[in-house]
Write a structure and sequence with these properties.
Elements (H helix, E strand, L loop, with lengths): L1 H14 L1 H11 L20 H5 L8 H20 L1
Length: 81
């Protein structure tokens, strides 16, 4: 079971490898893809704080949760009326 989960995680990260290569080619810069996953209801994964320190800028988990919840509410409002 753990091997299947590891394989799925590797597969998901490999989807972004093409993006990383393309960004490096276009902007001639060394880029690294950092997975930051926030669920539709604001749930976050363990280790998010470590990943938030990697990209430049002042992101916080609370800000990401707020953005996610507001976006989810916007989509629901558009769907309901």
């Amino acid at each position: 079971m753990i091997q299947i989960l590891t394989q799925k995680k590797t597969e998901k990260l490999s989807n972004y490898k093409d993006l990383e290569i393309e960004m490096s080619r276009v902007w001639r810069a060394r880029e690294k893809i950092v997975p930051i996953i926030v669920g539709a209801l604001g749930t976050i994964k363990k280790g998010l704080d470590q990943n938030l320190q990697l990209p430049p800028g002042q992101l916080s988990a609370i800000e990401l949760q707020k953005i996610t919840l507001m976006s989810t509410a916007h989509v629901i409002c558009r769907m309901l009326g």
